[in-house]
């Protein structure tokens, strides 16, 4: 009985040892197989995943995975650097060639400059002498202008005095005109009085004639009376004498009055002539007075303008002084330039020789980069372009589309850039279109696709979630353009050759394993979900929940909807920390893992809460080191940019079918255990 028990125990021990050896052998076989792949240059293999990581095989597997991932990352980083360095070498070569040509021209130009500088020196010297002479002339002109200004001042003063005197003369003439008018009036009255005197004379003559008749009658009567009438005869005789004298007197008075009247007429005519002359002279005087006023005003204007000219001339004179000073400085500078131009010519020759050496170094560096590219070709981290050539001999034109709004897509762009560099010697033209979202970007991108199709396009690679360009892609496909989608696929309306994407279910399970291991199968989780209509998001959420659901000690406290932007991820993470203080892991199913980690750091809870999610970037690696990110599952951003282009090119050139309808990209997990070995 004891023997049976002992035998049974030995049997069980032997079975256990056999199982252990077989398990170990299986683990060793996995390691050997992966090592053989790497020895053959196949670095795109998945990590070794053992049932247990304990024991020597686990240590070897862990070391293998770390070395493989580190080498893979290093090679892909080297590819990125090759792209950068190749561009830099090309630009350096162009710059060196241009610089060399420029230096030759500079050397030739320097000699000419030296000659021209000597001529310039003489010209400057002559100009300085001319400026000195001009400055002296300016001083003379200044003195002459001052004299003219003084003369104008005197003329203006004299003109003003003449104008004032004319005004006085005009006033005197007015007074004289008034006096002449009064004299004319007096003469009119005088003539009237003379006329009255004439009337009196006529009256006296009538009386005298009556006296003569009376004397004649008296003489007749005296003769009749005889002696008695002798006295009447005497009276009659005296009356005749008086009558004769009266007549003589009246004749004299009449003659005198006639002369007076004639003289009065002449005076009247003279006064009238004076008046007419005054009227004419008044018109002339007004013209003279107006001319004097105009002359005076013009003199004042001329004087004001001369003052302005004088002020401006003073500025010109000052500038002339400054010009003389600057000319003297220029003379000294030209003298110094003339001395140094020969030195510049000599240095330009030396620089030209150095440029030739730089060109040689750039050529050597370019050759070294080609050697590095050949060396990298020995490691098959991804698909390589076919060596066959298109039958029609023309270039294959491929449009590569990606988003460009976060670090993941920058990694995609690096893959595209490497494909462009890698295929630069192939008959291929890769057209890259990176999209930073803005209003109407879908319409603009559709227009570009249509334009390229009309010009002649062979293939398109694009993120499968961009629905806004499906009509343009459909038109392209109908026109014979081949299409590969990548990252994920939301619509089946586009007849593409294949989907190049990560295994979202496997990624989700990797994130779940990292969560379970960290929580030691017991703890609380919050899930941040973005657009669940996108298939990749839905799979990542459902597979994660199923995987952690296998452990009763792990609870999913909540599923929180997030927007597709960093700020909303940050805000929702901060809210989850406040609303669920017992949460230990936050699982982000989409992008912006770094934004969630920053919210944890800002809250200062990285010792009790960590985030797990996707993508490998330098920022995410740093946040893993800081303890905010538990683990990050990679989805080979570089490969998603590079591989679809090469797959598409090979299919277009060779017509060979793709490996599968869905091509799975490489995936790896980075956490605190291996982040220190990552090269990015």
Q: Please, could you describe this protein's structure?
A:
This protein is an alpha/beta fold and 680 residues long. Among the domains are: 121-332, Orthogonal Bundle (Helix Hairpins); 396-500, 3-Layer(aba) Sandwich (Rossmann fold); 503-633, Response regulator (Rossmann fold). 70% of the residues lie in helices and 10% in strands. The protein has twelve helices and twelve strands. The strands form two sheets. It has a six-stranded parallel beta sheet, sandwiched between helices. A six-stranded mixed beta sheet has the order 7-6-8-9-10-12, sandwiched between helices. α11 links the parallel β9 (610-614) and β10 (629-633). α2 crosses α4 and α9 packs across α10. The longest helix has 171 residues, at 55-225. The protein is elongated and about 220 Å long. The two termini are 66 Å apart. Residues 1-13 and 15-21 have low confidence and may be disordered.
Please tag this protein with its features.
single chain, 680 residues, alpha/beta, Helix Hairpins, Rossmann fold, six-stranded mixed sheet, 10% strand, elongated, disordered N terminus
Which whole number gives the mean pLDDT?
77
**CATH superfamily grouping of the domain at 121-332:** Methyl-accepting chemotaxis protein
CATH domain topology of the domain at 121-332: Helix Hairpins
Compressed to H and E, one letter per element, the order equals HHHEHEHEHEEHEHEHEHEHEHEE
Give the quaternary arrangement of the chains.
Answer: single chain
Strand content: 5-15%
Q: Give the CATH class of the domain at 121-332.
A: Mainly Alpha
- Rg (CA only): 64 Å
